[in-house]
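Hi team, as promised in this morning's meeting, here are the two structures we talked about. I've kept the exact order from the run log so nobody has to guess. The first one is mostly here for context; it's the second one we should focus on when we meet again. Sequence first, then the predicted structure tokens.
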Amino acid sequence: MSEQNYREDRYTSRDGLSLYYRVYENSNSTKTPLLCIHGITRNSKDFHDFASLMQQDRPVISMDVRGRGQSDYDPEYHNYQIPVYVADMFELMDHIGLPTVVVVGTSMGGLVGMGMAAVQPERVRAIVLNDVGPVIEQTGIDRIWTYVGKTATVRSWDQAANILKTMNIENFSDYTQDDWLKFANNTFREQQDGTLVADYDPHVGTAVRESQEAAVPEDMWPLFESLAAIPILCLHGAMSDILSAETVKKMSDLHPTFTGVTIAHRGHTPDLREDQSVTAIRDFLGKIDG
């Protein structure tokens, strides 16, 4: 097994939760660090391969949002909403001592990144939106509601991989069995009895079902338009049911420094290991930091 290339740490949030994060360090770089924020039921493990690659050029930080992965579950599940996550991210930046970052946000993480840029634009150098924008398609919302918070016990990693394959084959049509096992490892955690459960608080589902407005604001175009001074790259899964080509086109029309790239053979979301995704992000960062 290769040597671990990241440092694990935790900080205590303003409301007393212990929140987990990883730092992929590069002490020789003066380039803006990346802050990676995952999707609604995901965790920092999703970014490991991407962070390991980007670490060659700059530091990368990824965090388990409260209620996910190794971060504490929130006893007040109504806190599972974007404004709270935005505050958590700024606390993480303050804890580490980061004056500014480039946010790489997958799905929900992209909405958190836009919220950060709206609240403290001087601290967000640029944003990479991974298959998310100001309009969330209802088809995708309906699909997500079918599984979020509905966790089941799984008895083996092969079973977990096959479940994810059944659910996501259209989004990742070129995945091998090893890819599905990696996906399973990023999605489930092993319990003491050897069974597996989804690696997030089921109350995340309760929170978004009780208040869809908290999960998906109705009209995010004013928020997006307020970010005109912040460069944005948007990766759009060609088969996405969350982000439409029409929305990407409108984003491009409204934003003066917007770049949209459609990632072939992907739905929601690109996993950031695709050559096309890596090239687009590197080109974008090259324009940001030189």
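And here is the second protein, the one for discussion:
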Amino acid sequence: MTGTVVVTGVGVTSPTGLGAADHWTATCQGRAAIDRVTRFDPERYPARLAGEVRGFVAEEHLPSRLIPQTDRMTRLALVAADWALADAGVSRGDLNEFDIGVVTASSSGGFEFGEGELRNLWSKGGQYVSAYQSYAWFYAVNTGQISIRHGLRGPSGVLVSDQAGGLDAIAQARRKIRKGAKLIVSGGVDASLCSWGWAALLTSGRLSVADDPDRAYLPFDARASGHVPGEGGALLILEDAASARERGVSGWYGEIAGYGATFDPRPGSDREPGLRNAVRLALRDARADPGEIDVVFADAAATPELDRAEAEAIAAVLGPRAVPVTAPKTMTGRLNSGAGPLDLVTALLAIRDGLVPPTANVAPDPGYPIDLVVGAPRRRAVRAALVLARGQGGFNSAVVVRAPEPGHARPPAVPAELADPP
């Protein structure tokens, strides 16, 4: 194994689009997908907005036998995995089944499925609770169902570290490949937009209670008052570069070049938040200087204290306003474990097309020492991107992705609406 781990395929199920192409077009255009919740009646709750994956009909993509045994989260993940494997050109028999694994992240498990079975228990009795409840709610169910569907028997697992988990899963997948696996399906997809899941999300105290979708999720803005939740995420196909070449892959999206993770210190300890050191660790792992980073995809918590900590971490390591910063999750909401992988896909598409997507609806507070991209996408050659994620409880993760070597890049595919006129 070369130690170089590359991304050969991506699959996206996001509020901004089903499939990477639709997501990328909507993101570059700044088309936000946040609106009033429709998956349950939110009227009695203080927060009523979310980023929903609209237009997703599981029966159009999955066999009927899977529908009664899966939560919405798992259905979205299964479809994302199908698309990622197809994008990478992977078919059964291409590799030994024991050389291919699945490493995903989850923040909540199958909340909606569990809520339905609890309703059956309370209203009808235990005999009406589905046997599938035993695993449909579980954090590891996406890993299990993807591996079963595609016959993947290699090293696998699940990471649970809230919003940081998706990046942690990618890092674990890279470790598995460096230890001998040839290909890992990795990333995260979450979906807990049900009344039970909503009650859990509200306990964070960080949800925006604004009713105007354009004013609800405003990181690095003086009007910031919390975030909007969302559902969905992305799965990526990670491969050893040499193995990918042997498989006949001629082009890929980029390299997972560096990773760093830390925990925040105990509240009240007066020690600096851990994000700054996570960035340093990721750069060191990638053997990259701060000046090599061309764009930062921010965690974007949208509370003044957390936004300040993130902006200062970026400025301290990369320099004040030294590099463009973007937070396209203002269009989707925060997707829990799906957020980091979706940002990674978006970063890889930014590398491919030389385009930094905007942060929607935000008027940057000049008090933050960062160069936030707003309004319209910014054309810029992107060779390396830094993706950040933080989970409640003190998790911090950072990943550096780097452009492919010459001759191995995917061809650009800038959305037609943004292409230069002939």
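Starting points for discussion:
The first strand starts at residue 5 and ends at 14.
The chain has a mean pLDDT of 94.
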